[in-house]
């Protein structure tokens, strides 16, 4: 029997044949944790009686959630992680000012590669599926175990294949594609499953859009959202890869749990209404909904293409007087490029604020927490009740194009509604 | 393994931000996390729970983030066991790893808040003592049972070494 992409990668790391539903032990190529999850993982590591991490070059530690430290307690959490990194000689520890948001950063650094199996104590570890790596989020105890042993256990997921056919309409981005999919299958539509993306759209789908798509696979419950290792992936990783790698591919006779075929030409700019990512509606069908805040950033929507599209819309325009627009480049490298190429100037001139890389507002941490009754449009990945602040606040998830247009118009809007177009 | 206690009922898609809002993720102490358990849904919840109570939920309990602080908060506030129609994958793993029994039961919604229920993992049944009903529960795979019977992943792994 042929294997899906997820099965092929897992089989290689289990060093045997695998079938969906089986429990297997696998070796991992990389292990990730952040300032919220690492302290608990380090506790688990110590409780196991471990002395040394399995490989100091394959444990990635990124302080990004509550950094730059938002208060004394978060500073203490970061200190635990920093001290552990020094003690263990962790090669890829990324200090504030030299790093960024984990899932923006690790691909940039060439630390996650096609065909690899990566686990992270962060649910959005599935982002690396865009690079054709089987990457999945686990809790801290699992990650403590993986840091110590270089191994973990998995239940081999069933695979749902998503075939995207056709061409995207103007202003429709990867974010709209994944919102459309979650709207179709629901927030548990792929629970315990892997998603595998295919179709004639893929060559035209930029890598940053694929990263946004794979990032939100978990919002449908998927353990991973995998793209094939095509030319775009191989060209992205060449020159960045920190080690040799071997891409994997699905077999032509692979067995899929479900196959969805979607004509992307029918998709228009979308939002997910509060308080679940499955509450998806076209922007065009919304009444006029006033907003208080726009966030353009995060591990979903804080990459170069996201910033560029937002800048294209905000250039020469002003953020609506009743809206706060917060732009967060996802990494130090992107921030510098955004300064050098004039994007930061565009954002500042429009009346937006530009924050250093942080997860911050996405999870109601800092840098844009909402008050009771406030409403935000955000390029982030979750709109659960209270996610960005007060339980009575609201988050609408959207692409950077919709977010930027909404910032200008002061209500949820598509870029097509802006005068002068572009 | 048998757990008997009073049920607290919640709905579908109870996410990890409701279970433990991110602003409380600045500690790893189960007691401190437990004081904020489900505070995204009801800030007074933790104060009402008696040790040994059972949380009962609908579909996709624990969806969202990988924060293991979620099962820690549930344990920390005194909940002995969680019954749900289904669980999100990462939460399920985290709960097992922390030795918190999480039980899948298609009839979970038959259980009402305040019902006294008895969850018997060995016989694979939930008895609703208040309503005189019985509901079958999905059996654990052998591997999960092994981890849970050791009390979590760490004692399981330490046992494997020995």
Topology readout:
The complex is a heterodimer of chains A (422) and B (162).
Chain A: H1 5-14, E1 23-27, E2 30-34, H2 38-47, E3 59-62, H3 72-88, E4 92-93, H4 102-108, E5 117-120, E6 134-137, H5 140-149, E7 151-155, E8 158-165, H6 174-185, E9 193-198, H7 207-215, E10 224-226, H8 231-237, E11 258-263, E12 270-272, E13 280-282, E14 293-296, H9 298-301, H10 304-314, E15 324-327, H11 332-340, H12 343-350, E16 353-354, E17 375-378, E18 394-398, H13 400-409
Parallel strand pairs in A: 2-3, 2-5, 3-4, 5-6, 8-9, 8-11, 9-10, 14-15, 14-17, 15-16, 17-18
Antiparallel strand pairs in A: 1-7, 12-13, 12-18
Helix pairs in contact in A: 2-5, 6-7, 10-12, 10-13
Chain B: E1 2-9, H1 16-19, H2 30-34, H3 45-48, E2 54-57, H4 69-76, E3 81-84, H5 89-97, E4 102-104, E5 116-120, E6 125-128, E7 133-136, H6 142-150, H7 153-161
Parallel strand pairs in B: 1-2, 2-3, 3-4
Antiparallel strand pairs in B: 1-5, 5-6, 6-7
Helix pairs in contact in B: 6-7
Protein architecture, described:
The complex is a heterodimer of chains A (422) and B (162). Chain A is an alpha/beta fold and 422 residues long. Helix content of chain A is 29%, strand content 18%. Chain A folds into 2 domains: 5-262, Aconitase, domain 3, CATH 3.30.499.10; 270-417, Aconitase, domain 3 (2-Layer Sandwich). Chain A contains 13 helices and 18 strands. Chain A has a 7-stranded mixed beta sheet, with helices on both faces. In chain A, strands 4-3-2-5-6 form a 5-stranded parallel beta sheet. In chain A, helix 6 (174-185) links the parallel strand 8 (158-165) and strand 9 (193-198). In chain A, helix 2 packs across helix 5 (140-149), helix 6 (174-185) packs parallel to helix 7 (207-215) and helix 10 (304-314) runs parallel beside helix 13 (400-409). The mean pLDDT of chain A is 97. Chain B is of the alpha/beta class. Chain B has a 7-stranded mixed beta sheet with strand order 4-3-2-1-5-6-7. Chain B has a single domain, classed as Aconitase, domain 4 (Alpha-Beta Barrel). The mean pLDDT of chain B is 95. The chains are: A alpha/beta (422), B alpha/beta (162). The A-B interface holds A 23, 36-37, 39-40, 43-44, 47-49, 65-66, 71, 73-74, 76-77, 120-123, 125, 137-142, 144-145, 153, 155, 187-188, 191-192, 218, 221, 223, 276, 363-365, 382, 384-387, 391 and B 13, 15, 17-18, 21-23, 25-28, 40-41, 59-60, 63-69, 71-72, 86, 88-90, 93-94, 97-98, 141, 143, 152-154, 157-158, 161.
